[in-house]
Each structure stands twice: as structure tokens, then as C-alpha cells.
Amino acid sequence: MTINEIQDSIVEEFSLFDDWMDKYGLLIDLGNSLEPLDEKHKTPQNIIEGCQSRVWLNAEMNDGIITYQGESDAILVKGIVSLLIQVMSKHTPEEILNTELYFIDKIGLKEHLSPTRSNGLLAMVKQMKMFALAFKSRK
């Protein structure tokens, strides 16, 4: 699936719920389904600055495809990490760098987060794109 197809799928899934409490529930379920990050990746270099809670992101590239892993100590944020990984993982650096992440606005996520969580979300997206840029420059 392309990044945009994944984003469209997420928008569709979230549109099934009218109430934001139900959407928060979906985020929590996504967070609970996220594979735990290996302890070796929970390093100071992998912590996302600007997040209210602790968030770790790791990226690896194999055969030109980036795979992200992440975790947070806050369950709602863990769901956001899960969404971002779902959208951006298993794509090339070019695909990641050339994609506009419209699903965040379409599902209303930014407007339903506190300002500090919203800043954290932007910091996570920025870090994922920085990983992609670093991998692209190594090619």
C-alpha cells in the first residue's frame, strides 16, 4: 500500500466514530497493539525532544526500505506513535520525504490534543522525516 492509501484507510477507520472519546479509545487500542521497543533502542539519542511524555523512535533501513519502531510511556501517545509508524514504515526515504501527512488534520487529531501533545506529534513527524533524510543521504 502507498502512504496515501494507508492515510485514507486511517481516515476511514476514524470516521466510523462521531465521539472523540471513542476515537481516543481507538488510539489507546492502537497503542496497546504496538510491539514493545527493544530496550537497546531506549537511548537518549532516540528520545523525542518536545514531547510531554517520554517517546522513543528508532529507524532502520534494509534494501532501501525504512522500518520505524517506537514506544511511549503514555498510552495515548503510544497510540499516536503507532499511527505514525503504520503510515510511514515500510517505505523508501523518498516516499516518506515527499508525502504530506494529511490524515492528522482529516481525523481531527491535532485539534483534539493539548498544545504540548500537539507539539510532540510535530516533533515525532519531524524526527521520522529526519531519519528518512539521513538514510537518503547515505545512498
Instruction: Tell me the strand order in the biggest sheet.
Output: 1-2
Number of strands: 2
Query: How many angstroms does the end-to-end distance come to?
Result: 23 Å
CATH topology: Sufe protein. Chain: A
> In which range does the helix fraction lie?
40-55%
Q: How do the SSEs run, as a string of H and E?
A: HHEEHHHH
How would you sum up the major sheet?
2 strands, antiparallel
What's the architecture, going by CATH?
Alpha-Beta Complex
Number of domains: 1
CATH level 1 class label: Alpha Beta
Task: Count every helix, treating DSSP H or I runs of 4 or more residues as helices.
Answer: 6
Radius of gyration: 14 Å
| Structural shape | globular
Poorly predicted runs are none
Quaternary arrangement of the chains shown?
single chain
Mean pLDDT figure: 93
Strand content: 5-15%
Report the structural category.
Answer: mainly alpha
